[in-house]
Amino acid sequence: MSAASAARRARGPEELEIVAFDRGNYTSYSACGIPYFIGNDVTDVDALIARTPEQFARNHGIDARIGHEVLHIDTDRQAVEVRDARDTTTAYLASRSCRVASCTATVRSPQASRTTSGAKPCRTASVALARTHPDVENPATTTVSTRMQA
Fold first, then answer.
1. Pairing of strands 16-22, 143-149
2. Residue 7: which CATH number?
3. Alpha carbons 96 and 29: distance in angstroms, whole number
4. What is the domain range of residue 68?
5. Residue 93: which pLDDT band, with cuts at 50, 70 and 90?
């Protein structure tokens, strides 16, 4: 959501329509709170949520769609193919320009690998929920922000 928010700061809603896709269940969360959730000091993952999709729409003019995975960016058609995880339907969304912002791989230093054997990286609320509550269906998060000229 950082890329979408940065684009919004650069241009207002009348100039730029922004649609952000996230295959996870959360758009904006407190990453620094994740260790507290895993340690059970915070018991409700919703307490980590900073902004909901509805708040992004209302306060920032960003259409944040959770539970959606971008499958393909078709530069010839100027469209993005998106799958809705709830019903597995796919659709193309027209786009004049596109910015991709996705989760990156964790890089561990050799020193950290020697001192923290068995430790697993956990960067998102979705991953934290999956680790602490494996019975809850919750995909890992990848975000692709699509910018469309109005």
1. antiparallel
2. 3.50.50.60
3. 29
4. 2-149
5. confident
